[in-house]
Amino acid sequence: MDFQDYYSVMGVERDASQDEIKRAYKKLARKYHPDVSKDPDAETRFKQVGEAYQVLKDPEKRAAYDQVGANRQAGEDFSPPPGWDAGFEYSGSYGTEDAAGYSDFFESLFGQGFQSARDPSQEARGRASGGFNAHGQDHHAKVLIEVEDAYRGATRSITLNVSEVDASGHVVTKQRTLNVKIPKGVKRGQKIRLTGQGSPAMGQGQAGDLYLEIEFSPHSVYTVDAHDVYLDLPITPWEAALGASIKVPTPDGAVDMKIPEGTLTGKKMRLRGRGIPGKPPGDLYVVPQITLPPANNAAAKELYRQMEKELAYNPRTKLGV
């Protein structure tokens, strides 16, 4: 997938004000409108301009795009890094946006959220309250936690980026830090509600709430799938061939596990109930990975030569060679 330089599409600098972006869009939309332009590429250019404007006109989308697009060039190979959108606070609803007609690049970044339009249910609440006593708007953010936090629960200091337009019409990003209680057994995609941490209310209405959507940080040892956890476990050839009892790490501490005789690389072994806590809890799947000791000295090389002579092992027999 190619990276899209929306600033280049719009013909503006990266530090352009919101008014400058709006003027550029109006000019280009008139120029390339398929009903007006005779340019053979008018329809394509019109769609590109519309897509770029969908992002750059919105301070929240623009701030997120600026972070993921820093130091990238148009056309270079791109895929969103894990958790790229974590830590950005968004107003309005956080759900699926209609990305039809836009590029794969747009859909990969903004197709599953980032809606900054006001939530209709919130507007209804504001009207129902009467006068200027409108309910404050809810905010949303995705946050990264460690898988160990889901096993034990934790209190974490979480910093969120909040985007707004300053007096000169430029997008600025400020930060706020909150102490958040992470409940034991929390799952990916689960939302933690912080009452009153959204937008302030108008008049005597209630402030909006902040919803934190949970995502797990990439881990050097574990991967998470729903409520199950996976561990690639290095084992020795003799442990695999002869069987062994070994210590296996889990996010909640090491446990003893029996490696059956004749274990093969990639064969999953389940530790029931050792996944994310819950009712019922998930499982932890151990996936053995047989590793070879290095032949980095004379004695080790001699052992390998003896194995070569005595075992007469050819792993390529099934390939006919």
Can you offer a commentary on this structure?
By secondary structure, the protein is of the alpha/beta class. The chain has a domain at 222-311: HSP40/DNAj peptide-binding domain (Sandwich). The protein is built from 9 helices and 12 strands. It has helices at residues 6-10, 18-32, 42-56, 59-68, 104-110, 120-129, 147-152, 237-242, 298-311; strands at residues 88-91, 139-145, 154-165, 171-182, 191-194, 210-216, 222-225, 228-235, 244-248, 255-259, 269-271, 284-290. The strands form 3 sheets. A 6-stranded mixed sheet has the order 4-3-1-2-6-5. Helix 2 (18-32) runs antiparallel to helix 3. The chain is flat, with a radius of gyration of 27 Å.
Record the SSE blueprint.
Elements: H1 6-10, H2 18-32, H3 42-56, H4 59-68, E1 88-91, H5 104-110, H6 120-129, E2 139-145, H7 147-152, E3 154-165, E4 171-182, E5 191-194, E6 210-216, E7 222-225, E8 228-235, H8 237-242, E9 244-248, E10 255-259, E11 269-271, E12 284-290, H9 298-311
Parallel strand pairs: 1-3, 2-6, 8-12
Antiparallel strand pairs: 1-2, 3-4, 5-6, 7-8, 9-10, 11-12
Helix pairs in contact: 2-3
Order of helices and strands: HHHHEHHEHEEEEEEHEEEEH
End-to-end distance: 40 Å
Task: Write down the Rg.
Answer: 27 Å
The CATH H-level homologous superfamily of the domain at 222-311: Urease metallochaperone UreE, N-terminal domain
Q: What structural class do you assign from the helix and strand content?
A: alpha/beta
Strand order of the largest sheet: 4-3-1-2-6-5
> What is CATH's topology name of the domain at 222-311?
HSP40/DNAj peptide-binding domain
Report the helical percentage. 25-40%
The largest sheet, given as strand count, sense and whether it forms a barrel, is: 6 strands, mixed
CATH architecture of the domain at 222-311: Sandwich
- Overall 3D geometry? flat
